[in-house]
Specification:
The chain has seven helices and eleven strands. With about 210 residues, the protein is an alpha+beta fold. It folds into two domains: about 5-60, Alpha-Beta Plaits, CATH 3.30.70; about 60-210, 3-Layer(aba) Sandwich (Aminopeptidase), CATH 3.40.630.70. The protein is globular.
Amino acid sequence: MSFSILDDKLWFPPATHSTKDGLLAIGGDLSEARLLLAYRKGIFPWFEDNLPLWWCPDPRFVLFPQELKISKSMKQVLRGNQFQFKINTSYEKVIHNCKTIKRDHNGTWITHEVEQAYINLYKKGYAHSAEAWQNDNLVGGLYGIRLGKIFFGESMFSLVSNASKFAFINYVHQLVKEGIELIDCQLYTNHLESLGGRMISRKHFLDLLKTYIA
């Protein structure tokens, strides 16, 4: 299949129309309505050269909260006093760190437009941050979108070893208490596989969206 070109109308093609690597559409905007429609359909944006690209890969990398894995070394970190866990106290700092932190690959998909769009979603109550603090300094965390019983993870950062894992594990525990059934990790990473993430088919993922998003 070939990807679609989006216009000003609020729409997305069927997920099965994506290319082999998961690219579904190109163009459009990052309005609140379009972003929320995308997530409800299992689609997420990445940018390339300031151009919105919309993805729905097959298979999909997810974490079922009950399958969370915690290594012995991380259990020691969790029991210690190295970090303090907080939620939604510095969302804008979290997303900015995710935007600016150096990574193995070149550049970042979080443009200024993306940053502002997700800050708007936070102000509307859809986006959330989980944070690791150390000596009153934000040293790690993650942010994402929550709809129904699904949390769609977007990006994480760590300025201190184990800080992002500390924030993620604590947040998964909190999400379980709040009834979350699925965490969307989008694409495979060694980091998240070590925490229990695994691949499922796109069809299975889309079926779960219908079940867990009212």
